[in-house]
Amino acid sequence: MDQFLFYLHQGVNHITDLNGLDHMVFIITLCAVYRLNQWKRILILITAFTVGHTLTLALSGLNIVSVNQQLVETLIPVTILLTAIYNIIKKETEGKRFQVNYFLALAFGLIHGMGFSNFFRAMMMGISKDSIVFPLFSFNVGIEIGQLIIVSVFLITNLILSQLFPIKHRDWNLVISGAGGGIAAMMIIKALI
Questions:
Q1: Which tens digit of pLDDT belongs to each residue from 44-71?
Q2: For residue 58, which of 123, 127, 121 has the smallest C-alpha distance?
Q3: What is the pTM of this model?
Q4: Is residue 96 part of a domain?
Q5: 3-state secondary structure string, 102-165?
Q6: Given a cut of 60, is residue 104 above it in pLDDT?
Q7: What distance in Å separates the CA atoms of residue 43 and residue 6, rounded to the nearest whole number?
Q8: Is the pLDDT of residue 114 over 90?
Q9: CA quadruple 36, 21, 111, 65: dihedral sign
Q10: What is the pLDDT of residue 124?
Q11: 156: closest CA among 46, 28, 45, 24?
């Protein structure tokens, strides 16, 4: 149980750490198009993202995949920028069952998992490849909890602001996605310099 809590705690801390702002910005930007009453879609979206980075972490933890960290540090903000652009140009489709967002979350989760990979591999030092499943599971449960904390704060903020001010959802999406895109652009420039 102590080992589970250790990796769980590492996962929560890793995603909620303000030094890892890129992951928070991505999650918030990803959720900007959704309303509070669409919380089930948000859960699916966040879980798709978790599945994506879980796959990358597993491959990294087993030393099957090794990535150029400089490339990943550039690709992560690119995923944020692409998500922001998609949010801004996307037409609302309330009744549509499958949305491109789910696929993007899964695919971009693979890239974000690469960002976690060195941290996760360092945590796996001294652990045999056969023993990686439990730490991987615990760490990703922690990441999922951390993401849910971020989404909850985001949705509560949206709810409070929409009660205080007459904010149209389209405007909310434009502001949040625009801010996410602007932050991502600055991160890309910083990564390239």
A1: 999 999 999 889 888 887 778 877 888 8
A2: 121
A3: 0.88
A4: no
A5: HHHHHHHHHHHHHHHHHHHHHHCCCCCHHHCHHHHHHHHHHHHHHHHHHHHHHHHHHHHHHHHC
A6: yes
A7: 24
A8: no
A9: negative
A10: 72
A11: 28
Q: Report the largest interatomic distance among the alpha carbons of the chain, rounded to a whole angstrom.
A: 56
Residue 120 in any domain: the answer is yes
Residue with tokens 């750490």, as numbered in its chain = 17
149, two tokens:
């904390």
Which amino acid is located at 106 in the chain? Answer: L
Helix axis angle, 21-31 to 133-164, nearest 10°: 60
Question: Domain range spanning residue 9?
Answer: 2-91+101-192
- The percent of the chain in helix, strand and coil, each rounded to the nearest 5, is 80, 0, 20
Token readout for 6 is 């250790």
Residue 96 in this model has a pLDDT that exceeds 70: no
| Domain count across the chain | 1
Q: Does residue 18 lie within any of the structural domains?
A: yes
